[in-house]
Amino acid sequence: MKIVEWMAQAVVQTQGLYPYIPGKPVEKLLREKGLSHAVKLASNENAYGPSPKAMVAMQQAVSEVHRYPDGDCTALKTALAERHDAETSQILIGNGSNEVLELVIRCFAGAGDEVLYSQRGFIVYALATQAAGATQVPVPDTSDLGHDLDAMAAAVNDKTKVICIANPNNPTGTLLSNEKLQIFLDALPRHMVVILDEAYDEFVADIKADSLQTLKHPGLVVSRTFSKAYGLAGCRVGYAVADAALLDVVNRFREPFNVNNFAQVAALAALDDSDWVMDKVKLVKVQRARLEIAFSNLGVLGGKSYANFVLLKHTRAAELLNHLEEQGVIPRPLAGYGLPDYLRISVGTEEENDVLLRVLEAALAQVKS
Ligand SMILES: *Cc1c(COP(=O)(O)O)cnc(C)c1O
Q1: Taking the model in full, what pTM does it have?
Q2: N or C: more exposed end of the chain, with fewer CB within 10 A?
């Protein structure tokens, strides 16, 4: 086959594969708008930064960077296994939990198989399904933007291989109880792979029992990340806890050195600094409450959120977005999720939220609904 034909074929295969659209990079916005300072509230990072212990660990690892990392992530895996009362064989570590989600989907679903997720579930499920050549089955949400577990159970058939549920969900911030999830799991074929994506678990740890100790299902894969509460998004490290035999299969799909050494040492140190992490989680929740009250007073609150972001709802959200970006505040538009009236805004530091509220009030005065 000539290279041009091969390329043409590759293009056809990727048709409809739409790229993940990240929040606008700060440098790009500053250049475009001629601004000197921006407040990035688009990617749900921890605005307070990483644990100081994680920073020290990375600095200490600098001189070893000519060596390959530990391909098995032994130290981190051991610490995580201990934390979750599991065996190391029940832990899979990835280049962000994003890689974990992709590996599991690619491993269990291919051409002719179906992957189920809520229509307003995390966009990566749709992308990973498409990349795996499997069929996407987005299930409509309940009217309050929550996962409709009854509708999802009804959509399961012989072709369904993987189900993905984010809890709390991104981008809608909704939360399902363990009780509801267990009823859903009990109605499934026992070995159906169910990815329970708990990227924001630290933000609900005080109001909900740990699903790893509570939920029972042989095909359950619980994923967590160091990118959100732990403040290590730039390191790219996340993990899943699941049945050892299931993960043994998934492990064959991963690259031998998928998690770099800085990520491993930083995650290990951050894990050991839970007081710091939970302290920042508390600060974020205080600020979230502040933003929700302010949004509510301004008549733009889009719903209650259990994660580290808030939802703004306005019929002219796109115009508001422009006004906010003009002033150096970067939220995330949700038109791509079929929610054109919504913006998702990460909870920043107190000072960043001062700027956000000031700029938002001015923007609302200009954009009359
Ligand atoms: C941010 C996020 C992730 C991915 O995080 P990683 O940085 O890849 O670990 C996964 N799921 C949800 C729902 C998220 O919001």
Answers
A1: 0.94
A2: N
